[in-house]
Amino acid sequence: MSSTFRRSHTGRPPLVSTACAVAVAATTAALFSAAPSVAHEVPDGSGSHSHQEAKANVLPGEAEILGQEHADAHAMLRKAAQSLVDDYPQTTRTARLKALTESQAKTNASFDKTEYGAFKEYFDSPDFGDHIALLPTGKVLLFSFERIETNPTKEPAPTQVIGKENAGRAYLWDPAKGTGPSAFKKVTPPSVNMPDGLNVSRPAPFFCSGHSFLPNGMLGVFGGNLGGNGGTGAKLSLVFDPWTETWAMNEDLVVGRWYPSVVTGADGRQIIMSGQSELGWGTPTPIIERFPEKARPVPLSKGDIPRFVKADVLKAEAPFKRDYPHLFSLRDGKIYGLGRSYDQQWLFDPVTETRTDLPGRIDKKDRNYGSAVALPGGFRGPDSVLVLGGDRDDPNTYQLSGGKWKTAQPRAFGRTQDDTLILPDGNLLTVNGAFDIRDYGNGVLNPNADLKYRQIELRNADGDWKLGPVQRLPRGYHSNAVVLPDGRIMITGDELQQIANDRDITDDINGTIEIYEPAYLYNSDRPTLTSAPADPIGYDAKFQVTTSTPDTVKRAVLLAPTTATHSVNTSQRHVELRIRSRSGNTIELQAPPTAASAPPGYYMLFLLDEEGIPSIAKWVSFAPKG
């Protein structure tokens, strides 16, 4: 029985005899095995259905034998059973997935994997993956919400729900354990009693929150859904500890935030901006908060777990008109707040707590959810940002550098809801995308998609783009992707597409994961990285790594782990490391010069050969001396 029926059929149906119940069950079974015809609404059991509505489903002669009321009860149950089949049947989901699998294989047969890479595994996941974070343990944290709908043409999230169904969920995927059920671990968020007047505890509804990493590798998660009024901001403040794989609660934020953005600054503190307040949709907050508060030291060690810690409020405000702005901490130590409204581009100084204007984006348009990336900037870290997606009619990309905007090379077509990643070699990869928020060009909440929204794009060192192979599922709203330490790409997200193509909608396995292998994994043997320092490394300090392939190593780079949602990825960062000396299998590297170049925390360290082929990464961390 679908979750739709379980939720809607809350009243008490008319009584039927045991014999009649058996007859109805037989009829229901027959209906479930039949092909769907016309969609119906599921009865709510309240007795509001008229005699005429029920009469349409009464079998010939049934009323004469059972009586009209009894026959109407049978008819209503049959109608409910039929609606389960007609609503969005499993046969449709199975056929959709089969068609997508076949079209992917057919399309990708023409792409040379040594030039374009290749899609490999496709497997089930217990979570939608609307939020994602690659942890410094190598595991991936996925979190979202408990679905309230199994029909992909309806809203599955409990945005408008006030009460226990408005709940969060979270899982860990361990790539080292493969792709089966044993590779996943449930890590449910703490139970909370939300201030909704119902006094009902449930796992914290932290979906559509904002997040970034603390220097000790923990993930700070802020905001979420209080429920109702078009999306009401929660004041939630949580930390996920990757070392113990547990959650910790902190003091509430000063204001509710639904769709906020968070970035980690050069001092290791998290800057929280925007989001709809506890008053509901249409009330974005201008208040900027900082976690932890300035009076508390920044957590640097694994044992320093923030619990019941406060955030404080900055003097400056960030009056973004639209939610989920892109935030970047660049090499000058400033926070760049790039709003989706073209005229809301601001520079924040977290030290003086001031805001200044940046030039308006030159496209002169407000953009939907789309990706933006801090471009690789060499040894000193990034100093420019590329805004890519968010406008289905504009394939151009726009670069902010030195306080000025310029139009950069276009992609093949405009797309929203896309995710763009920095690869270890410094090139860019775009996956996912859509025509609009939940529109793939065939209408809102219509899961059918143009093939092009499944096609990846690759950007080389010269800034030129080329289209590549297609992923199996089209993934738009709430899609996500991360670069794994072995250089592969994990792709997930978009609850509607995952529901529409679910192998078995009756189980609780909500999501799917796809793995893309870039071309650098197909071109030659990889360099090796045998060892790297386990203790935190000071800025500008020299440190040693070992390799069994010293002659092939030409570059060393840091890649920050991704945490993202809604196409907003504030954490990823690519920093080159200077190679200072070599001796046998030992290579001496020099750390980034300052915390502004690479904010304190954990990074993947890759060694690369002259072709840009990366080793498997090892985790290193950076922290201020003393």
From TrEMBL:
A Pfam family the protein falls into: Glyoxal_oxid_N
Domain Galactose oxidase-like Early set: 526-621
Gene3D superfamilies per the UniProt record, alphabetical: Galactose oxidase/kelch, beta-propeller, Immunoglobulins
Signal peptide: 1-39
UniProt xrefs under InterPro entries: Gal_Oxase/kelch_b-propeller, Gal_Oxidase_central_sf, Glyoxal_oxidase_N, GO-like_E_set, Ig-like_fold, Ig_E-set
Domain spans labelled Glyoxal oxidase N-terminal: 206-520
Keywords: Signal
PANTHER family: LOW QUALITY PROTEIN: ALDEHYDE OXIDASE GLOX-LIKE, SECRETED PROTEIN-RELATED
Protein name according to UniProt: DUF1929 domain-containing protein
Organism: Streptomyces sannanensis
